[in-house]
Structures are given as structure tokens and as C-alpha cells.
Fold this sequence. Notes:
Number of strands: 11
Largest sheet: 7 strands, antiparallel
Order of helices and strands: HEEEEHEHHEEEHEEE
Strand order of the largest sheet: 2-1-5-8-9-4-3
Amino acid sequence: MSKRSFPLPEVYRLLEPGPVVLVTTAAKGETDIMAMSWHMMMEFEPPLVGCIVSGRNHSFDLLRASKECVINIPTVELAPKVVRCGNTSGRRVDKFERFGLAPVASSRVGAPRIEECYANLECRIADARWVDRYNMFVLEVVKAWIDPSVKKPRTIHHAGRGAFVVDGETIRLRSKAK
């Protein structure tokens, strides 16, 4: 096998951790939707999620002010709207209205859920110690919603440069305990 050097600024393309999600925030009479793929599970119970939100994003300011958000998990059918949300600033546009997404009141946080997404995770900031240095928020999921009619959700995963991989095939592997 022959390998070649890979550009360091593109390493993220090799390690994208999970599905692209839409993070909704609300503060100061404003709402926003941000596409995000830099997140990771950190703990099972309580469920903690680490999220990187750039300080240049409008959602960063709203999340910091409100200390809560909703992680909305879309399926491949919403991919065009997800990309548009990611390429538009919420400082100038109401993304719910512009992209035809329905905001639904959350039960535990002030940020709205996105009705069209198959799952929604209402979150509160559990730890903000890494925000100033790394733009990393540790969020605790305080309420989770899922659409039971979606049997095999096909999520999208960012591969860089406008490319996405669609999740789909499930394989089951079990090792026998020794």
C-alpha cells in the first residue's frame, strides 16, 4: 500500500464524528438555526454532549446568553435545507421562515424544536469552562423527543467540501465473551 501526505487543515474530513444536526437557540427575542457536525457524546447518564460552536456564529452568542439549545437531528430528506441553514447567517435572516421549517415549543428549554427533524434533544449548558479557549460547550440533554414513525433514519454526515455521506446500512457484530 502506498500512502501520500494529507493536508492538516483537512484532517477533520477523516474524523467527522456523527450526523449533521441543526442546533436551535433563542435569546434576546431572536431565534437561530445552525448546522453543526462537530459534536460528541461524553457521558450516558446524565446524557452529556460536547459541541463546538464557533464564536463567529450568531448561535454562539444566543447559546451563551440563554445557556440552552435544542439539537435537532434531520434525515437525508432535509439535506438541502440543512446545507442552506449552514450557509446563511441568522444575524440577517429568520431561517425558520426562509427555509420553511416549523418551530415547535420545547418543554424544558426556551429554544424551539424543529418539527421536521426526526429527533430533538433539549439541552442546557452543563459546563462552559472550555468555551473561551476551544469554543466547546458541554450540554446536558434534559428532554429527548423522537418520531416513532421513522423506523430507519438515514442521517447525513459531513465529508467536507460540500460532500455528505448518507447513513443507511446497519450491520450487527457481536463478539463472544471469553
